[in-house]
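name: query_chain
kind: protein
chains: 1
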Amino acid sequence: MPRATLTTNQFLDHRLWDTLPADRPIALQQHWAYGETLKAIGADVSQTIFEIEGKAVAFALLGHRSFYRALDVTSLMRGPLWVTPPTEAQQQTVFRSLKKAFNPWKWKFLAFQPDLPDTPTAQKTLKAESFRQIMTGHSTVWIDLSADEEALRANLQGKWRNQLVKAEKANLTISFGGRKAHQYSWLLEQEKAQQETRGYSAIPTGFVSLYADIAQRFAPANQTLGVLSVSCLQERAKVAGAIFLLHGNSATYHLGWSGDAGRAVNAQNKVLWSGMLALKERGIRFLDLGGINTVDGAGIARFKLGLGASPTTYAGTWV
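structure:
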């Protein structure tokens, strides 16, 4: 079986993302805009290209951390990205070469979260290349926005669709933003307060404006990068909203908020539905609803599942 050659660069070649197939979603953690944002806040991020017989077959963003100047930990989340759908042999070759590139005996460790559904086949492939699972995978919901609006609406679960109808009949106004921080800063303030009240942690709220700045700096005319904010007003009061992070042919539902007045009229249903249509209009094909947790966040999970798509559970973290 041929080997895969790994080439690692500290700079991120944005052109590589143009080689990816349009019909496969891209995880936020593997888009160059995410990598550039992390680099801007001081993180050590590199790009590795996997070649088999001189041909690039995949690439990935890797994050690096050092402890005590001796222990190196590298993470590869939701990757690699495949230039074409891989054969089983190509996948095994890349995984084997990735495993061999990190030697725990030299205090170089890899935490690998492959972009694979948690299936017996995925488990078998990873174990065959001497990977060992240390954490089960998270679940999320992907929405394919390539369907027309009528089909997307028909796919909604009945209760969710009825709530949307209620919101559409209420006196609600939707406005979109994202290019300027003041258009969504109020949502970040609500998210920060929500984290403190409910006692959970997430990506720092400052990440959003920096992500938007990175998109503006590197690709100001690209409508499929940056931030889309959706604000819902009842008369002049903001009652609900959401922020989406755009990354190529895909987007991620990053955060959402609804106050008491918004919940009374199911405003968040209209926010998410309006956001989906706006993303579709921009050329976004896939929407990642940002993870579901049926244990600690059952209500939010039901809300996301109400859009009609089935959840995907990933293979987890391997070392």
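note: The chain has a mean pLDDT of 95.
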